[in-house]
């Protein structure tokens, strides 16, 4: 089932009673068609990137960097289990991922400069702080600009039920930044039942999209709305309008969002959770040729906040939430995603990166939980030219600080761009990722 704004339609059946396409000028859709500054990307190892963003920041000690020999006020209540990588242990909460460590590489020496939400999200997704303005582009926007929009689907999708934000404001580094709103992500939501919603598209009553096959007629229908967009946004509006039209009317494009085309066994392997079915949608987007998919665990980071999805910001009930919800959900979905990419022959051409925006305090807080910890956290990398089974760096005996070279968010973005075929010259021409370098030992 595909849900386009308030419009619901089965992708392989007829169109329902509600109507046509309106692209809301207030909701950037991210299309990134080639322009005068675009250039063909050099040959790349990664044709597609899935950036799994654990918004809210999981505890590294309770997941992929346990410290079983640390004092009790640090180590937490969970036992440790071996992985397939010699001398590497995870906590007992991630048995499926641990058993697949030969399929990915692990970095345990990340550090960032931003201590909170959503400024930490901007650094994690762009490599740079929010200030001074202008905001730098999301890694996905960089790839979207370099690749352009050569197919029906936009080059950059963010899978979430809306703009990523904390309780007060959004992540400023969500999209195109200095590259313009034309390279913002196309927002698509997915429910626990697998219902997909293209939240950037709305519909006008009394119009059937299948009856409008002439793009000139489409332009006429939207002309009034387009006049409401200021002149600086006109180019982005035109691109959004074209891609939204193609997305709605092209059968092959619509099929990418139809999870009912998957077997019940496959959908169950991912898990009937929002993140599980979203992960399956990410795999289908890769199969459809989308260059960059930002797969978000949740829209909001808060773990306990009425009206919000539960994210990884576990200032209270850290151990309960990780044990009962977060880790089982992540373990099932991420392992299924890796298996599918390998089994379908997609892994060599698909780079998968999973991480949050920082870590959590190694020392357990007075609330019997863990707070923000920018000095040390982890990431997982698979496919797209990454050598599997490696461990890059280590943290100290308490998990407080990296030992050796620190891996920054800027290095993350530079490595993603490098593996996606965006070389130093291309980055310089776009004026992005300045000062970044590739992570040593990962490739």
Radius of gyration: 21 Å
Would you tell me which CATH topology applies?
Alkaline Phosphatase, subunit A
CATH-level-2 architecture: 3-Layer(aba) Sandwich
Distance between the termini: 39 Å
The CATH first-level class comes to: Alpha Beta
Helix count from the secondary structure assignment? 12
| Major beta sheet, strand line-up | 2-1-10-9-8-12-4-13-16-7-17
**Strand tally, please?**
19
Low-confidence stretches: 5-41, 203-207
Q: What would you give as the CATH superfamily?
A: Alkaline Phosphatase, subunit A
Strand content: 15-25%
Average pLDDT confidence is 85
**Sheet/helix structural class:** alpha/beta
Question: In which range does the helix fraction lie?
Answer: 25-40%
Shape: globular
Walk me through what this model shows.
The chain has twelve helices and 19 strands. By secondary structure, the chain is of the alpha/beta class. The two termini are 39 Å apart. The protein is globular. The chain has one domain: Alkaline Phosphatase, subunit A, CATH 3.40.720. The strands form five sheets. It has an eleven-stranded mixed beta sheet with strand order 2-1-10-9-8-12-4-13-16-7-17, with helices on both faces.
């Amino acid at each position: 089932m595909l849900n386009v704004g308030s419009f619901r339609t089965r992708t392989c059946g007829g169109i329902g009673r509600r109507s046509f396409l309106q692209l809301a000028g207030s909701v950037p859709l991210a299309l990134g068609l080639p322009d005068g500054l675009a250039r063909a990307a050099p040959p790349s190892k990664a044709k597609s990137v899935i950036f799994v963003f654990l918004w809210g920041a999981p505890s590294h000690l309770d997941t992929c960097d346990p410290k079983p020999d640390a004092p009790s006020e640090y180590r937490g209540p969970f036992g440790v289990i071996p992985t397939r990588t010699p001398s590497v242990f995870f906590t007992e909460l991630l048995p499926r991922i641990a058993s697949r460590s030969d399929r990915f590489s692990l970095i345990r020496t990340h550090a960032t400069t931003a201590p909170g939400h959503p400024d930490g999200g901007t650094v994690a997704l762009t490599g740079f702080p929010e200030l001074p303005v202008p905001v730098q582009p999301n890694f996905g926007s960089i790839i979207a600009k370099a690749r352009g929009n050569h197919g029906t689907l936009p080059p950059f999708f963010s899978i979430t039920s809306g703009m990523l934000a904390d309780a007060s404001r959004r992540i400023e580094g969500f999209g195109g930044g200095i590259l313009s709103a034309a390279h913002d992500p196309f927002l698509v939501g997915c429910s626990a039942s697998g219902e997909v919603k293209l939240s950037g598209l709305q519909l006008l009553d009394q119009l059937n999209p299948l009856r409008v096959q002439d793009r000139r007629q489409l332009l006429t229908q939207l002309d009034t709305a387009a006049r409401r967009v200021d002149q600086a946004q006109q180019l982005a509006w035109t691109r959004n309008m074209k891609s939204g039209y193609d997305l709605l009317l092209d059968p092959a494009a619509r099929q990418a969002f139809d999870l009912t085309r998957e077997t019940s066994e496959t959908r169950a392997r991912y898990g009937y959770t929002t993140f599980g079915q979203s992960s399956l949608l990410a795999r289908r987007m890769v199969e459809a040729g989308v260059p960059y998919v930002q797969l978000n665990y949740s829209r909001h980071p808060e773990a306990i906040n009425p009206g919000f999805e539960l994210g990884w910001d576990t200032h209270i009930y850290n151990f309960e939430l990780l044990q009962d919800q977060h880790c089982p959900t992540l373990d099932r979905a991420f392992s299924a995603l890796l298996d599918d990419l390998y089994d379908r022959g997609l892994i060599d051409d698909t780079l998968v990166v999973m991480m949050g925006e920082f870590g959590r305090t190694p020392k357990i807080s007075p609330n019997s939980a863990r707070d923000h910890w920018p000095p040390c956290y982890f990431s997982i990398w698979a496919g797209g030219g990454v050598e599997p089974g490696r461990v890059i760096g280590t943290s100290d005996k308490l998990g407080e600080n990296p030992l050796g070279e620190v891996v920054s968010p800027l290095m993350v973005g530079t490595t993603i761009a490098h593996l996606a075929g965006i070389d130093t010259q291309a980055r310089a021409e776009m004026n992005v990722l300045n000062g970044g370098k590739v992570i040593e030992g990962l490739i």
